[in-house]
Amino acid sequence: MKQHNEEFVRKLDLTSVKIRKHIIEMLYRAKSGHPGGSLSAVEAIVALYFHHMNHNPKNPKDPNRDRFVLSKGHAAPTLYAALAECGYFDVKELLLLRQINCMLQGHPVCTHIPGVEASTGSLGHGLSFANGIALAGKLDKKDYRVYVMVGDGETNEGQIWEAAASASHYKLDNLTALIDRNFLQIDGNTEDVLRLESVRDRWSSFGWYVLEVDGHDIEEIIDALLTASEQKNQPTMIILNTVKGKGISFMENNIDFHGVPPNEMEYKLAMKELDTVQKALEATL
Amino acid sequence: MNKKEMANPRDAYGETLVELGGKYRDIVVLDADLSKSTKTILFAKKYPERFFEMGIAEANMISTAAGLASCGKIPFASSFAVFATGRVYDQIRIDVAYSRANVKIFATHGGISVGKDGASHQMIEDLTLMRVLPNMTVLAPSDAIQTRRLVELMATTEGPMYARIGRANAPVLYKKEDLKDIKIGKGLVVKDGSDVSIIACGTMVAQAVDAQEKLSQDGVSARVVDMYTIKPLDEKLVIKCARETNAILTVEEHSVIGGLGGAVSEVLAENGSPTKFKRMGVQDMFCESGEPEELFEKYGLSTPHIVKTVKKLIK
User: Which end of chain A is more exposed for a tag (fewer CB within 10 A), N or C?
Assistant: First the structure.
């Protein structure tokens, strides 16, 4: 049920374009990193940080804040760009991603990047970590929520299923997980590497409430996040149907851009495509 | 020391958790289907809302503990040493050590005295595995009284920590008041002597004390050091021993590679110490099923082995 006004949605779409431009710029400058899985995660992270979550960049350690854990840590550029745009740190820091003596590490680290909740990068940990936050919230009778994004390939990891069972066992209805279902991992299509389907049935059978949305439709994501918040006695998994490399024509569904940054020509092309989209969106506002 | 008095460090751990649980409301305890053996069940009975049974899923337990710590909880996560370290090394590395999470991993059933369960359950690499992790503090209490004191210090000292105790009853070495001033990062001289320093940890401290008594009857003056902190190592004490006694022997219920012996040898080598030095522990091998005493005898960790090794070392 879509009920948001057009302008509100266009503004968030515009934010998504800005985040994509940051991602391309960061990866081009860093000369390393993961474009594909960063670009597929954009709309969900924008929906969380620029609309849905209760958080305060001026007080990153507010005990009552909602938390977001990026379990697929290689999408760090998306998280960093969102945090910078929200005001957790200077946007200029983004250009120093992966450089020596700089804050932004190749994968998220919670000890010295404001707004980063968990150190990730080794796949499979984040859902368990989010469970810990959710358990603490229940224990302290706080009404914050925990969000965690996992990659689809990441659910090859056994620990994900330990955590899936645990979240369900402890009835963690203050936890919403999102799976970036882009169907690609480094060695190929997820169904060829290690079959995941039916993703919906797997999570349902573990006792989760499962929603499925177009992972690039900000309205659908926002509505699903709201529906998830209202669930009682069970955690929710939102399947984000996404496109790896989304937003850059030659990166979309192209596994070569899992972990390879754009070269100069690709960088210029990508920025040009994003500029075009940005201008079209701005014209509607 | 009354040699007849025995106590189980696992009971001490469980009972101390209960005591601290009343004092510190942020303490939470996690276990992976071994709470009856690790004795965290005592906490579970007293504070069920703060006890999390994680099932046979140790990786999830460690990362969940880190999540709890990120919200200000003080989680104690327990299992057997073999499952609490090697099985979950990556989770400890990233979520606990790298993240400087205030997680306390407390392992029981360390070493070969696990006995009849065999090599699969006899953890002899954990001190090495935990010691190499940046930010990690590594402890090995030697008796039930020291276990109590160190669990208190773990709860009240910020930072990632690992502690290991054995399965079996252990001779009581200390009175409570002996340990009121001990600190993490220090070792303790249990018996003074001038011919040799026996630096031991965990279950081997009691064996070293026995050896010291026998050596004394044979005219050898042995110093016994309880090196309950493996990391950060009390380097000053090691160097002091090197200067004041003619030889150093390390004894641990652990592989001779990378644990207490490894740590002490690094300090001695880098300080150019000419002191004679020998590591006692399990050689580079897996052991087997058997009674603890049989295993100590066969794999070279009994009191007579210590006595013999000291005599050979100081010849």
Answer: N
